[in-house]
Every structure is written in C-alpha cells, then in structure tokens.
Fold this protein.
Amino acid sequence: MNDDVVSAKEMINRAFSNIESSAFDKNSKITNAWKNTVSKLSMEGEKLAAHSRIIDLKNGVLLIEADHPGWIQMLQMQKKFILKGLNFTVKELDIKTLAFRLKGTDAKLAAAVQEEIEVQESEEFHDNIRKAENQLERMGYKASKKKGELPKELTDIFESLKNDMLTNKQN
C-alpha cells in the first residue's frame, strides 16, 4: 500500500486535531446566545435570528451578517437590547458594539470596526459639546444664536482682557 494515501477519516482527524474543544464550545455558546437574544425581540425576533448570523468577534466588536438591508436596519434599531442580552449571557466575551454587513459582501471586521469607532467618537464628541454648553448655561452664559459668534458675556471678558493687555504693555 502507498504511504501517501490517507483515508478520509485520518484527514479529518488531522485537520481537527489542532483545534481545541474550548473554541467549539465558545462558538456554540455565542451562537446560541445570539439566537436566544435576537429571538426575544418583538414579533420579528425569530425571523431576525433566522436571517442573521455571527461572522467574527474582534476587539469587542461582533460582526453580524444579514441577508437583506431591512434585517440589518431592524437589528441596528435593537442594538442596545442585543448588546445587553449578549453581555448578560456571555460576560467573558465583553462585547462592546455590533457591526453589520450584508450577505454576499466582503466587508471585513477591520473596516466595520473603524466605521463603528468613528461613529462612536462622533457621538461622544457631540455629547461632550452638549454637556459643555449645558454647563456654561448653568454658570449663566447664554449660547449665541448666530453660528460662530461668541456669547456676549465671553465677548465682554475677551474685550476686557484685551484692554488690560494693551494697558499693561504701554506701562
């Protein structure tokens, strides 16, 4: 018998011998958590679970694939609920956000992660601006109605500083 010929059974055993059973368990656990969490969403939960699947998990971002843009939109609307459910079920994975792609596209997690990070940073930036504006209003400063124009209180302060600097410079 030729030593180069290997049975199908032996090929399968060799292929899977390097994969730890814990990886299978982890994959199974998150897949089940996905199906259970999404299935609990409204009346369409079962359909959402059937039309979506987990593709990848990297750096706390779970990439989900759906077979129609409508399913992606529905999943995005329920993103907070899904994240809470997944993190409750599989705490050890520490999933921070979800990214989506349409089935048949070749979008990789890196691009989805970058886009998600940019969206989150933009939201945080705008939240910080709103907080700063609210804090200034509590301190008695009113926001200007015209874009790019400083509130009168700040304009007066800057004018006073300018005059002080000009006066001190001449002395």
Q: What stands out?
A: The chain has a mean pLDDT of 80. The CA atoms of residues 156 and 162 lie 10 Å apart. The chain has two domains: 8-106, 143-171. The radius of gyration is 27 Å.
